[in-house]
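Hey all, quick one. A colleague (J.T.) asked me to put the pyridoxal-5'-phosphate job into the tracker so the inputs and the structure tokens live in one place instead of scattered across chat threads. No bug as far as I know, just bookkeeping. Sequence used:
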Amino acid sequence: AFNFSAGPATLPEAVMRRTQEDLLDWQNTGMSVMEMSHRSADYMQLAHEMEADLREVMVIPDNYKVLFIHGGASLQFAAIPLNLATSDDTVDYLNTGVWSTKAIKEASRYTNVNVIAGGETANPTEIPPMSEWKFSDDAKYIHVCANETITGLELQQEHMDFLFAQGKPVIVDMSSNIMCREIDVSKYGMIYAGAQKNIGPAGLAIVIVREDLVGHARDITPTLLNWQTYAGFESMFNTPATFAWYLAGMVFKWIKDVGGVKAIAEVNQRKAEKLYSYIDSSEFYENHIAVDQRSWMNVTFSLTKEGLDAEFLAQSKAAKLLSLKGHKAFGGMRASIYNAMPEEGVDALIEFMQSFADQHA
Ligand code: PLP
């Protein structure tokens, strides 16, 4: 089966097979990683390797802290303003869809949010033109969602370069496109991502933050929302999500094994291009996202003939192409083709889509 779920999402088959083997006896310890003290030497080695591997695959400079935090990406929606702004400060947010809106709503509880652009509709299909972006002079940081998972709308390098040029810390939610291509981490203030798409199991968030941005949390910040707490205790102030760390560590090793983010990006580009070009070439399917802002990770499409969605989903499921139903807020279909989705999965999907279209021509 190929699982196109948007998250929790498919994980590399090699990783899942290895996990199965490890479950009863990890590295001859006589127990699984889930049953082991996080302070044990064996586990500490796993934790150190995980961080080192992530630093290697993303080329994270030494002046960045890598934190592993519970609570998923959404908890960072609150942590970001609490760590970086006072209640009197202003912060800049770009609104490109549902996930941006959630981040804005949460930040607005703690500080003054200026929306740079967007927000007129819940699910925009294009990024507001940069000529319309209105930054505030004194923003403490600029926040964007790099890839809106629901629609499959992705910020492009030109957008990022424009943001970097503002000279403020750029904070990016990369939950659904982290490690899908190479990036220059040194340009960012802070990068965060929920693990359940390109990294591992849900519940864990990866935070990569420039060290000068750590240590300024407001007094009222809960201890476990303060980045300093994680930075000071190797993300082990309390019991970490040990199994999630183990799996994330395995995924980072898998990325290294298959040639690093560069190699994965080549496959990702090919997968996305072939699926979009099939959709564009077919009269039976359409994608509504601005062509040059289409996500590599979440490909949304709808059927041009009405009343066939349920049948499409039933048949695709029977063909072992799983979880293709689009998010209810946007409708239609969505094929999430994260790093772990093999190219054959995309080929099989295209073949199925064509045969379904032929059936209903
Ligand atoms: N940001 C984006 C872009 C997402 O796609 C998601 C979840 O799908 C989240 C944030 C929220 O992540 P979590 O459920 O880990 O809080």
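Adding what we noticed when we looked at it: The domain at 24-257 is CATH 3.40.640.10 (Aspartate Aminotransferase; domain 2). Residues 7, 72-74, 99, 145, 149, 173, 175-176, 194 surround pyridoxal-5'-phosphate (CB under 6 Å).
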